[in-house]
Design goal:
By secondary structure, the protein is an alpha/beta fold. The protein contains 16 helices and 11 strands. Helix 2 runs antiparallel to helix 3 and helix 10 crosses helix 13. The chain is globular. The relative contact order is 0.14. Bound molecules: glutamine (GLN). Glutamine binds next to loops.
Length: 495
């Protein structure tokens, strides 16, 4: 029996190019896996069977003609935050449950042009606000390693789908940790690129100064292939950066001799709500492995890291409150029944279609931006953001990359934190500063540790780089994945 789900994108791409498998065969195989297993996970909102098979057929023709790009015929899934021409794009919200996008996001178009086949759209926290996928209008996603646990969020569907190999890879977005935290919880590899490296056009906005799209896959080499197709300047996104895209697959094998790894002392400090002891031991074992490969560990300071969560929870809600004002029940999306007047139309449409977490963020953000409070909150948060960013600039004078846990603990159980937003917000304590600074970071699987219910769950380690150093991060991650096999492990039920 074919076992295509045990193959990486890198391997599948080679098999397609060599004609050992057709894209139609592969696409059918993964559609079957989704059909037979996704009722356990709920990782997809929409499955695009017909479109996917049509795209696969086209890809097979391109492959036959020769000179087809590397990803031609590889099936993947897109987070449902990316607009997809003619396909429902819900952003995990009742507000957009009836929205069929009339165009492709640039990420989707780039992937299409690279020959990628879209299997479907993955579940996510509503408007990407959340850390557990529990805020989705389409219901919670389950973690393939333990169906009682959350997959993380907001890209929880993308992470679960790849972890269970219902798709060889997927796309995600990361505003405060939404690629890295679910990647860590589900034992896969995820990369948040530098702010501006990947176009945000057609990616439904949450917090525009933080949002960034990136690949979620089995390995660093898979993420490199995907980023090659995703990245690049886009005149339709004024914040996308006009800078050449290197070949991210080219330098994966560079030796790590002499690599200076910074360890932020604040992240490893023992404090209330800090890192779980088993997670810490797992991270330390990974760091030992890096030392054995010739890297040097150097303690660094990120003195302002303690303010990153509060700064984020002013900046992100402020920006979301303005971004989400476009959903007014008039132009597209949900509209309430029989509005009495315009005001009633606005308030009921928004009140009925936005979930509780989204409403909480809009209220916090509107307050932070209101006259009289703007200076005290939003402006102050933007000033503090510079301090956080300067911490990293200073650190990169001494080190090449920074390593840290992705999350303080492994995947918690469904329902465990839903009544406690603050404790939910703290699950991004190690990821948020990276978004505030606009720098790139990955999460890679480095082992297992027990969660609060004593279940063994994947641990993710972050590798954080300076602006535009994605290639270096991918190299550092790839070398580790060549001498370890955490990234190839599959959850028992999905083997
Ligand atoms: N969990 C964070 C939040 O709820 C980050 C989400 C994200 O990166 N999209 O805002």
């Amino acid at each position: 029996m074919s076992m295509y789900h045990t193959k990486s994108v890198t391997e599948l791409s080679a098999m397609l190019q060599a004609g050992e498998v057709s894209s139609v065969e592969l696409t059918q195989y993964f559609l079957e896996r989704i059909k037979s297993s996704d009722d356990k996970l709920n990782s997809f909102i929409t499955v695009c069977e017909e479109d996917a098979l049509a795209q696969a057929k086209e890809s097979d023709e391109k492959l036959k003609a020769g000179n087809a790009p590397a990803l031609t015929g590889v099936p993947i899934a897109h987070k449902d935050i990316f607009c997809t021409d003619g396909v429902k794009t819900s952003c995990g919200s009742k507000m957009l449950d009836n929205f069929i996008s009339p165009y492709d996001a640039t990420v989707v178009a780039n992937m299409r042009n690279a020959g990628v086949v879209m299997l479907g759209k993955t579940n996510m926290d509503e408007f990407a606000m959340g850390s557990s996928n529990e805020t989705s209008f389409y219901g919670v996603v389950k973690n393939p390693w333990n169906l009682k646990a959350v997959p993380g969020g907001s890209s929880g569907g993308s992470a679960a789908a790849v972890s269970a190999r219902l798709a060889p890879a997927s796309t995600g977005t990361d505003t405060g940790g939404s690629i890295r935290q679910p990647a860590a919880f589900c034992g896969i590899t995820g990369l948040k690129p530098t702010y501006g490296r990947v176009s945000r056009f057609g990616m439904i906005a949450f917090a525009s100064s933080l949002d960034q799209a990136g690949p979620m896959g089995q390995s660093a080499s898979d993420c490199a292939l995907l980023l090659n197709a995703m990245a690049g300047f886009d005149e339709k996104d004024s914040t996308s950066i006009e800078k050449e895209v290197p070949d991210y697959s080219a330098d994966l094998d560079k030796p790590l001799q002499g690599l200076r790894i910074g360890l932020p002392k604040e992240y490893f400090a023992h404090s209330e709500g800090g890192m779980d002891a088993e997670v810490e031991a797992t991270i330390k074992a990974a760091l030992d492995q890096y030392q054995a490969m010739g890297a040097e560990l150097i303690e660094i300071e990120l003195p302002n890291s303690g303010i990153s969560v509060p700064v984020y929870y002013v900046v992100a809600p402020a920006e979301c409150s303005t971004n989400l004002s476009r959903f007014d029940g008039v132009r597209y999306g949900y509209r309430c029944e029989d509005p009495k007047d315009l005001n009633d139309l606005y308030t009921r449409s928004r009140g009925e279609a936005f979930g509780a977490e989204v409403q909480r963020r809009i209220m916090v953000g509107t307050y932070a931006l209101s006259s009289g409070y703007y200076d005290a909150y939003y402006l102050k948060a933007q000033q503090l953001r510079h301090l956080i960013s300067d911490d990293f600039t200073r650190a990169y004078e001494k080190v090449d990359v920074i390593m840290a846990p992705a999350t303080p603990e492994t995947a918690f159980n469904i329902g465990e934190k839903t009544d406690d937003p603050i404790s939910m917000y703290l699950s991004d304590i190690y990821t948020i500063a990276v978004n505030l600074a606009g720098i790139p970071a990955m999460s890679i699987p480095v082992g297992f540790a027990n969660n609060s219910s004593g279940e063994s769950m994947p641990v993710g380690m972050q590798i954080i780089g300076n602006h535009f150093e994605e290639a270096k991060l991918l190299n550092v991650a790839h070398k580790y994945q060549q001498v370890t096999d955490w990234h190839t492990r599959l959850p028992e039920e999905f083997k």
